[in-house]
Design goal:
TIM Barrel, Urease, subunit C, domain 1, 2 domains, alpha/beta, about 400 residues, eight-stranded parallel β-sheet
Length: about 400
Amino acid sequence: MSAARQWRISGGRVVTPAGVIAPGEVVIRGERLVAVGPYGAFGKDPGEKVVSADGCWVIPGFIDLHFHGAVGADVMDASAASLLSLSLFHARHGTTAFLATTVSAPREELREVVRRAAAWSEEGDGGARLLGVHLEGPYLNPAYAGAQPSAWLRPPDREEMADLLAIAPGCVKMVTLAPELPGALELIGFLRQQKVVVAAGHTGATFAQARPALRAGLSHVTHLFNAMRPLHQREPGLAGLALAEPVLGFSLIADGVHVHPAMLKIALGLPRRGCPVLISDALPLCGRDKGTYTWCGRRVTLQEGGARLDDGTLAGSVTTLDRALLNLTRWLDQDLPAVLPLVTANPARLLGMMGEMGRLVPGALADLAVLDDGLEVCLTVVGGRVVYAGPAFSGVP
């Protein structure tokens, strides 16, 4: 037997790919799950710590493919202090893994973000694990820039992208671009060859313009319905393509501000083979008090209706995935297991990491969360290590 420390979470409702086990338990050794099943089915090591989750849900940790920061910490700063601060904050809300998401910026600034993020993902010791970088821009349509810094938008540039990918091979996991821009189709093909997830977003693409991108290797749509041509009965646009093509996945912001609950029902109610996910799209203002701040050189007001620029444009979200998940259970009138894959298995599948995370199965990384009946996060575990413990679990080492 490995000398790695073994402990377990017992009782409660354990959500597995095969269904809910109640009461169930998960056994953790080192950074991995070694057993998942009914309560009392597995023998214990001498002196093994047992944590009771009676009355709670035991679930895979959330995977957030799109957030920019939290509590004042900004991905674009990419300092070790900022990355630690935002990863701890989101771990408090059940997120165990994330993609550090950029905004459009000068080439050298993007290079530095990739370099620092790659270093921290290897050496960082804190909250949620950093899986890599999501480049949201700079190849976006200026007419649909939203809160993206328009001064740094530019046409797709294969040489620039190859340089960014070479800084830390495998670090850039996802790129969002506007597929109608000159050179976009060639870049999509190149990125797919490099095994990077290519998403369309901040785009005015028509349905006819978006279809060639799908053939070129486009597989995802970033924050469906937001920062893109509106869905129309005679011009469905990219949003219509995402709804019509079962192979095309998409992300949604379920904060009640970006997308009406009825549109979420439409998008998620269609049979599909693609990979829909929830994202937070959280700004560095997430977790801060209402007020006026500066982000990306622009004034942003945080109020009841979300975060907005002075002209009323939405400037990203200030939600977290636990809140988004709770919203979805209410709006769709579904229980937790039915919607949980949108923040666990689906993002893991999109990144090609289903064997490692997103499901509670033996051999997977011990990245998990414990939620109470109100879906409040009580405990977050990353790689077998407790990174957040609420009052009910305050004694957990």
